[in-house]
Amino acid sequence: MISKAARRYAKALLQSALEQDILDDVEKDVRFILNTIQDSRDLVVFLKSPIIKQEDKQDALSKIFDDHISGETISLLRLLSEKRRENLLEDICNGFIRLFNQHKGIIQVYITTAYDLGEAQQKELHTALVSSTGKKVEMHIALEPEIMGGIIVRIDDTVLDGSVKHKIRKLKNQFAVNTAV
Fold first, then answer.
1. Does one domain contain both 86 and 132?
2. Which of 6, 27, 138, 172 has the fewest CB atoms in 10 Å of its CB?
3. Three-class SS of residue 70?
4. Spatial separation of the C-alpha atoms in residues 96 and 37, rounded to whole Å
5. Full-model pTM
6. Residues 134, 85 share a domain
7. pLDDT of 83-124, one tens digit each?
8. Are 92 and 171 in the same domain?
9. What pLDDT, in 10s, does the model give residues 45-78?
10. Closest Cα partner for 43 from 77, 79, 14?
């Protein structure tokens, strides 16, 4: 869950990037920052620590990111340091990416399969999802052998469960109801 403060910063960053026509550059910066944070739990602890001096946090952020991101994103990092809000950085990045995807008409689709999908199957599935949603689709595929076969597709709050495990469970329930009668 992203805090209200993080959402406000993310929205302001998106608006500023749109006004300056640098949205794609800022999106790359934000993804770089997010990947760096997610790859280093030590950085997260460092940024959230109330013991570490503000100047040290600001210096660290500057050394880590200044050579890799644009001026607009550097300004955000400095603002967060001045306001003592570095602890919101990961949530701000996640919020920005969510807003970016909404702005660009991109949806995240989470797919679970029991077996690896071949390249042709992935392309066919992608094409079907684009056709049925009318949006740009980013697929995230996870393997879970326990579903035995079939596929589970999750788009936002909608889950389409075509797994063998789900079908067996439905049959068991149906047989239990029929034998109870």
1. no
2. 172
3. coil
4. 15
5. 0.79
6. no
7. 989 999 999 999 999 999 999 999 999 999 999 999 999 999
8. no
9. 998 898 999 899 999 999 999 999 999 999 999 9
10. 77
